[in-house]
Amino acid sequence: MPKNPSCSHKPASRSRTVQLAGRSLTQAPLFTNAGYLMAIEVINTLVGFLFWGLAARLYQPAEVGTATAALSAVALVSGIAGLGIGDGIVRFLPEAQVGDVMVNTAFTLVVMTGLLIGSLFLAGLPVWSPSLLVLRRSGPALIGFLLFSTTVTLNAAVRSIFLAHRRALYAFIQATVVNTVRMSLVAVLAGIRTAGLLLSVGLGFFLALALSLAILLPRLQPHYRFRPQLNLSVLGLVLPFSMGNHMAGVLAQSSRMLLPLAILEMLGPASSGHAYIAWMLGSFLTTPGLALAASAFAEGANAPHDSARIVTKAMAVGFLLTSGAALFLGVGAPWLLLLFGRTYAQESAGLLRWLAVAGPLTVVTQLYFTHLRVQKRLRSLILGSAVVAVVTLSISFWLMPRFGIAATGMGWAVGNSLVAVGGLAQVGRPGTGRELASKLGRVLPRIVIQRQ
Questions:
Q1: pLDDT tens-digit readout, 341-382
Q2: Cα separation of 38 and 336, whole Å?
Q3: Sign of CA dihedral 109, 112, 116, 117
Q4: Which residues contact 191 (CB under 8 A, 6 or more apart)?
């Protein structure tokens, strides 16, 4: 008999421990919910390609153009009307003693703001989009636009409730309904021209909202019933946080919204097309990291005291996944871009390589922002978002005459690297700085072992 009987079982015990650790990793809500969120993005993208490819064959180009412009208007109105309330729901609903009051207050608020912003948008069409004046030339078109934009805003709020309850599966069901309906109706409604395209998408959102309110949401909050309600204490708690996140989100997206216009004006329409393809491929690279950030926000909101550990774990996995994909994308950029044409391989490869460099840094930045959201450090969140935007735009404008569209990738990489390094280098704040960096160093090898 060995002197230490436990030694004879050490390899098996270690193997069993690693096996259980790996299983707990894949079954943890953080990664399960992130998986559903990634699946939503993949399905939305694939169905989007199929939907618009079919629409291009069934509808006239002018009809497709008007429909896409109207859908962009709906997205714009919905984004503004949401007021960032989704972030407030995810952060505060887990702590709410009366969840139904918070949910109904959020729903009532976004309905009011949706109708208000939608009406202002329609009133100003002669100024900012005369080509869409058709939206207010008849009562049905005007009412339909307001209902459509409000429904989209409500769906976004419902999705945030699902995330607050850590049930991304329900958000996946919601997205599946939208995509199934729009693909089913795009050919059926082709006879009514532009309205057919808009109804295909609009009915998808309407049915997804009806399913969510009637079946899915009551499963998470038993006996829930929607009714108009504005609770001042809820608004006082949620709105400041939501508006701060909304401002940070607008700043974070400003560079992505302004760069296409800058490229068009400075380099011309051909360069704009080359840049669009590279940025589209680069966006796929950060999908796992963004999904992990959204899932980590929900997990951290349910356990704010544990947010550093949650964010660090997500950061480790997201960094590994994105780094591997970034290496593949950076090396294979010219060959991958050949799928779109020889000129794309020649003109877009440099930008795509810079976006590959920026990919892992973007994951770190977004997860650092997630930690700031959980800790309600809105000033730091807004400042970090502003740094990314200002640095990206400044470098892009400065270097574009010399390096072309690749300059936008340089700016994006530098802006994200400054925030990522700055966030990890902070000292004296719980869960950030050296503590986060130290934890990241401990978690990375552990994840590697679990994956072997």
A1: 788 888 889 999 999 999 999 888 888 888 888 888 888 888
A2: 22
A3: positive
A4: none
pLDDT one-digit tens code per residue, 45-69: 788 778 877 887 788 877 877 787 7
Q: How far is CA 18 from CA 15, 22, 280, 447, 452, in A?
A: 5, 6, 37, 10, 9
Domain borders along the chain are 26-230, 244-452
Assigned token pair, 274: 């080359």
Phi, psi dihedral angles at 358 (to 5 degrees): -75, -20
Q: What is the DSSP string of 137-149?
A: SSHHHHHHHHHHH
d(CA 271, CA 347): 8
3-state secondary structure the chain: CCCCHHHHCHHHHHHHHHHHHHHHHHHCHHHHHHHHHHHHHHHHHHHHHHHHHHHHHHCCHHHHHHHHHHHHHHHHHHHHHCCCHHHHHHHHHHHCCCHHHHHHHHHHHHHHHHHHHHHHHHHCHHHHCHHHHHHHCCHHHHHHHHHHHHHHHHHHHHHHHHHHCCCHHHHHHHHHHHHHHHHHHCCCCHHHCHHHHHHHHHHHHHHHHHHHHHHHHHHHCCCCCCCCCCCHHHHHHHHHHHHHHHHHHHHHHHHHHHHHHHHHHHHCHHHHHHHHHHHHHHHHHCHHHHHHHHHHHHHHHHCHHHHHHHHHHHHHHHHHHHHHHHHHHHHHHHHHHHHHCHHHHHHCHHHHHHHHHHHHHHHHHHHHHHHHHHCCCHHHHHHHHHHHHHHHHHHHHHHHHHHCCHHHHHHHHHHHHHHHHHHHHCCCCCCCHHHHHHHHHHHHHHHHHHHC
Contacts of 230 (CB under 8 A, 6+ apart): 105, 108, 109
Mind listing the pLDDT tens digit for each residue in 126-143? 887 777 787 877 788 889
* 164, 33 contact by CB (below 8 A): no
d(CA 173, CA 212): 9
